[in-house]
Amino acid sequence: MPEPIITFTDFSFRYKSQTEETLKHIDLTICKGEKILILGPSGCGKSTLGNCINGLIPFSYDGEIKGSCIVAGLETRKANLFKLSSHVGTVQQDSDAQFIGLSVGEDIAFSLENNAVPRNEMLELVDRAAETVDMEGHLKDVPYDLSGGQKQKVALGGVLHNDVQILLFDEPLAALDPQMGMTAVDLIDRIHREQDKTVIIIEHRLEDVLFRHVDRIILINDGTIALDTTPDELLRSDVLKEMGIREPLYISALKNAGADLSLLKDLENAEALDISPVKNLIAEHFHKNEPSLEKLESTGEVLVEVKDVSFDYGGDYSLDDMNFTIREGERISVIGKNGAGKSTMAKLLTGIIRPKKGEITFKGQNILEMSIREIGRLIGYVMQNPNQMIAKNIIKEEVELAPRLNGFSKEETDKNVEEALRMCDLYPMRNWPISVLSYGQKKRVTIASILCLKPDILIVDEPTAGQDYRHYTEIMRFLEDLNRDYGITILFITHDMHLAIEYTDRSIVFSDGNILADDYVYSVLSDKETIKKANLKETSLVTLAEKAGIDPEKFIHAFIEEERRQRTDGK
């Protein structure tokens, strides 16, 4: 029998600030060399379980422990953080909380310096780690100035050379573009195989993690272990939907066609999957719903025009001669690799920074003539990192700050705040301190604070980062309702191809400061050349369509229409 390296025995934990236990009677054994995915909805206790493994509980977060947690032979509550860190390396969900160095190179080198690695050897290891995570050109940059995805790469690079037995990744894909997400999953898998590490991944993006095999999936719900199983068995069941966790796209498409998943082997791997037992069924289902393809048409009043806009941060242009139009009522996904200029464009649209060349107009008026506050009433911006937006200590105080600063009456402020809190599933927690919230919960607070202003255009930067599928679906359906019922235009800056497919009609693809494509989402995500150039990931719907002998563009279009019909019907 494999040697256990982590053992929880009747383990429970309650945070000092809470009355109920977050983890309840956990019995779990993880053996040396295993690769484990910990899955579950937000607030279920996934990250708390991870913090028990790496020693942040009890040494950084106070609370009451019952039962036993043994990591690498150490009873965690009797050890110390230094001893545990020599066995467990962690990449945290919130990259900012992990940075130590003043530059990217210093941060990647931190553990090497602690271990007194000779300088010549250290420089070589840092260069190798930076190249592995595609950050070799940023070694002198300040970590806090990087994009969210770039920060995640630096954090990952910092643990590559740690001589530890256990590697713990808390949502390592949260801010990565699809291609870099695949690279990260492949890198984690390679480290697991070549260095015989025990790897634990805490992640919402199930399909992306299953790009490479995992041994077991531990499903956590309400602080308990709901299921401990293999990926194939989990995908064959209906547990994911019952728990509010998103299925891989190809699994949803197979189920929509009425396929019997028990007939299929290697279900966790879309590439290796043999669909011959259900191929005819998929084709028949598609032809019943086969859509026609259309050219992108411009309808609705023009709200924003971006004309020949260029911008730089003091060097080469980050954005160069950008041109596009945003119309009333549109739902647009802005996609592309990390550092392509998506977040920079959002800051330009909201007046946080101003173009070096060209102009941006709102209903014909140049926004250079407006203050940031005036623009903010028209174009709301929910930033990627919630920690950069939050200014108050209590949830309700944070959400009501924007309408108060913008001169809303007390009655209107109270009404808008309660409505936004309820829509974002935060009303029962309205008097909680923000410090006890998870990253995903903080994200919902920032969305609520912007919705209070009732803007004409809402820009949401990475809305799914840190969100489980249930909360993500609630917010996205709410935003969908705003778009449909009130005509609010919404731009989603995202790496999440599921979001683009499910909730947007048009995609603008950024690549190296230029617009690579601007078309219907199903056309963009079936174009292999665009996908390659923009560091996107070919969706599993393309893989399934090709296996079934169906045109991928039409197949994705049909899938989008079917999913939207199901949402409308309340399925």
What this model shows, in words?
The protein is α/β, with parallel strands linked by helices and 571 residues long. The chain has 23 helices and 20 strands. β19 and β20 form a beta hairpin. α4 packs across α5 and α5 crosses α6. The mean pLDDT is 88.
The share of residues in helices is: 25-40%
Uncertain parts: none
Give the CA-CA distance, first to last residue: 45 Å
How big a fraction of the residues is strand? 15-25%
Question: Which value, in Å, is the CA radius of gyration?
Answer: 24 Å
Number of strands: 20
Strand order of the largest sheet: 6-7-8-3-9-10
| Shape, per Cα inertia axes | globular
Mean pLDDT: 88
**Major sheet attributes:** 6 strands, mixed
Characteristic terms for this protein:
six-stranded mixed sheet, 571 residues, 20 strands, globular, alpha/beta
Task: Indicate the topology.
Layout: E1 4-15, E2 23-31, E3 35-39, H1 46-54, H2 56-59, E4 63-71, E5 74-75, H3 81-85, E6 88-91, H4 104-114, H5 119-132, H6 148-159, E7 166-170, H7 178-195, E8 198-202, H8 206-209, E9 216-221, E10 224-229, H9 231-236, H10 239-243, H11 249-256, H12 279-288, E11 302-312, E12 317-327, E13 331-336, H13 342-349, E14 357-362, E15 365-366, H14 372-378, E16 379-382, H15 395-405, H16 410-423, H17 439-451, E17 457-461, H18 469-486, E18 489-493, H19 497-503, E19 506-511, E20 514-520, H20 521-524, H21 528-533, H22 540-548, H23 552-568
Parallel strand pairs: 3-8, 3-9, 6-7, 7-8, 13-18, 13-19, 16-17, 17-18
Antiparallel strand pairs: 1-2, 1-4, 4-5, 9-10, 11-12, 11-14, 14-15, 19-20
Helix pairs in contact: 4-5, 4-6, 5-6, 15-16, 15-17, 16-17, 22-23
